[in-house]
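Q: Can I see a sequence and its folded structure?
A: Here is a first one.
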Amino acid sequence: MKPTITLISDWRNRDPYLAIFKGQLLDTLSDAHILDITHHIDMFSISQTALLMKQSYSYFQEGSFHLLLTNASFTSTFKPVVVKLNNHYFIGEDNGIFRLMFGNNTELSGWQSTADMSSTSSLQVMIHLVKDILNDNLDATTAPYNTFKPSISPEAYHSAFQRQIQGKIIYFDAFCNVVTNIPTAMFKEAVKDNPFTATIKSETQWNIQQYHENYVPDKAMYLTNNALGLIEAVMYQGKLGILATLSIGDEIIITY
């Protein structure tokens, strides 16, 4: 079976680096199926990378390889780590991204490359880790790794006593829809069919009182579920993120 390899980064598409890396991948793994998750992560934002990878990897076949390229140092001391979880392989530098993806309470173990960086490039190390896994040779080129850097990124919080969900804006998609860190499942379990008010605090306070399961042609602001399983604030063809002058990290509070 052809190996499926996904890529996610803050590299953009303007420069040739992404194409060069794909060329190196195919030179080593000629039958690889390479898929891009996104290369438009905000610069150095491992929190966005962790979010989008966590929410999207399960849509790929088991045994897939996911290369985490955002904010990797690619220096002479670069020692990428392999984590296998839910029968998927995640490869990247432990800059905190693994705990951001899977939480501080998830039991993680992995392998760290022991490659001689004086004789190979940083990107080639990641590629050869994929090859070593496919050839069942990982133990010969890595050492066990379990000292993962902890996550300090806050998660959405639900207080049933206060009848309130607290979250933050974490991402704007290409249509300037406002993606929060509030899981749709948390919202539905808490709010049910009760009336609610979602307040976004930025330069101006915005209140939203509608939820639609899917996108609808409605010029009013409303909440919806997105493909990542997260609550998203939208306005049909309205570029809400720009219209409301919102920013990453702005608070959203849902009371019901």
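Q: Show me another, different protein.
A: A second, unrelated one:
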Amino acid sequence: MNLNVYILTYNRAALLRETIESVLNQTYRDFDLYILDNCSVDNTDEIVKSFSDERINYIKHETNIGAAGNLDFAINHCKADYFVMFHDDDIMLPDFLEREIKAMEANSDVAVVSTNAFVLNEKYGKEKKRLLLKNAGGAYSNGKCYLTYLATAKTLIFPSLMYRKSFLDMNDIKINPSVGPCLDVAFYFDIERKGGKILELSEALMYYRLHSGQDSHQNKNIYMMELKLFEFLMQDEYYKIPLKSYAQEIYDRYYIRAMYKYFKGMIDEKQFYEIKNGFGICLNVKRSKWNIVENVMKLYFCLFKG
């Protein structure tokens, strides 16, 4: 049994040291750490070289190969039994690897193990602990993970995932860059699609950092990233059949979220309609039960806030 941990990084020198330290301080110590630097122009190399641990391997790409390219590089590079692709701004709790390795070893039919996480908000630090997932824990197979996402928008926490490399190789599962920024979600959907069982541990074994430097931190960006994912799913013969039956529910979900942000001043009117119309066209849904609420709120703001 052997394990590779990949930290995929780009211009995050200010946060990278804490991430590396959290990996090196794991209770399970038999692993190789690969830091895949996507051609950073800050002092990332200095941060990495300040560590003397023999488990560290530093690979700096000569050109930026994009987020998808860096993920794909890690998957193709790995020759170990198991591997993790970790974010350069997140933090492992000390028993992260030990708990996931034990779960893998105890369940030979499991292709992926994931965990819950604590939210690490730059405003509150580690003092205010909040779970990222409300209902974590359980096993997914035969499309259950995908259907759960359609019904509730619940996803796995990508940097928490540990993969069984032999399953990916045997089923030729690759990163698909055409999915867009949410390609990580499509990746584990594809694992389940090919017969892979996913085991989700209920415990929070890492900190998932939220900060202003993330693309998804911007109010509009997360919706447009997810819209790109749904556009991909609607073009796929396997995914689009169940998606169509959830189309109205999904449209209403994004509609009301965008409407809330619009009337709170978090996105402007143009952004609101880009989200509303984008999901409507993608999911082939024309109207929502929330249309009347939108019109009442517009009238209220016109009369009393204008």
